[in-house]
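I have been asked to look over a protein record a colleague put together. This is what I was given:
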Amino acid sequence: MRKILHIDMDAFYASVEQRDDPALRGKPVVVGGSALRGVVCAASYEARKYGVRSAMPGVRARRLCPDAIFVPPDFPRYRAVSRQIREIFLQHTDLVQPLSLDEAYLDVTAPKIASPSATATAQAIRAQIFETTQLTASAGIAPNKFLAKIASDWNKPNGQFVIKPAQVEAFLTPLPVGRIPGVGKVAERKLAEMGIATVGDLRGFTREDLQQRFGRFGEALYRRARGIDERPVEPDQPVQSISAEDTFAEDLPLSALEPAIVHMAERAWIATRKTDRIGHTVVLKLKTAQFRILTRSFTPEAPPASLAEFTRIALSLRERVELPADTRYRLVGVGLGGFRERDEVVLQGTLFDEDALAMGDDHPVS
């Protein structure tokens, strides 16, 4: 039986800003976005009380919380703090799987530091994080990753929650299906149409029923309803791709997708700032009303250097969609793939510059 922790920093970016600027403490802080444009990267708990959430358009955040203080993100600073936190994790176990700068799975079945329980290990890690960074973290403790992730959100902020093996069924039965990771608003609405509101309701459907309605995701729903998740904690898994996608309330023609593509590009670009690796390939994903999935991609000579460039490429990929003009689309996604280590990209760029100069080129490749 595994002992898995999911450690999740509390309002990480906003908390770093409040820690480093006393004038922001106790105030509704929004990182990213602006009063006029952009997407929210993070919101302090003072701002969340008004309904402000990450990935929300900045203009909507301003409407919800007129007194919000908008702060531009400082990802190098967030990455530095994240490295401090990662070092603490590694003192307790080598089985650490980062999900982003502010959260990770840890397998503490056999911890490096003797501990009476996984609960005690989580408490020790959270205490070390606060002592080192003056930031709080929440933790979920459970026999698998799926349950640990749900549990970490249970007593936020600055808390932890344990789900013991014998408690799994009783814990899951009354849980709203929307709490299952991967179940968004569209899937939740489809489940409601089937009379499914809770995980207990979901457990009443066969594997075949769910697969017929949801395809491969139906298999995942069947297993999650029973608390089954055999995925191991996989350390040192480098980021390969990052994307954001959205399913529309009603199907739209290609000509009407520009605002959605711009919004998804911004969400994806913000997510790419959470990794030290650099992506090269821009990907546009579309799903038709008939559930046909199309992807179009482009790899420029140099990685996209800005949100504007990334968005421009994503929008240009529409020109490579060759379906009839009256085709309707139910989903759009924008992603960045082909990630490489930052040092590798810098070295490659340096070599290109030297080659270009050696050839007498007045405009070296950037």
About this structure: Residues 345-366 have pLDDT under 50 and may be disordered. Residues 8-139 form a domain with the MutS, DNA mismatch repair protein, domain I fold (CATH 3.40.1170.60). The chain has three domains: 8-139, 169-224, 241-345.
